[in-house]
Design brief:
mainly alpha, 3 helices, YjiS-like, DUF1127 domain-containing protein
Length: 70
């Protein structure tokens, strides 16, 4: 049986909280882009608003391009 590691739990929690902050920040920034910039990244205003209004714990549903390594 695996032992409970408080240190490992703390690191996992810290990582997850950083992810949530990243989602929240990037979605807020997405909603501030104008239509020209949204077109550059392949989105329209309705898609940006839909993504921007998602809860911070939900991951994005957009498919990444073949050359995107993030």
């Amino acid at each position: 049986m695996q032992r409970f590691s408080l240190t490992q739990f703390r690191y996992q929690l810290s990582y997850q909280l950083r992810q949530y902050r990243h989602y929240r920040r990037s979605r807020r920034q997405l909603m501030t882009l104008d239509d020209r910039l949204l077109e550059d990244i392949g989105l329209d205003r309705t898609q940006a608003l839909k993504e921007g209004r998602k809860a911070f714990w939900k991951q994005t549903t957009f498919k990444r391009g073949p050359y995107e390594n993030r």
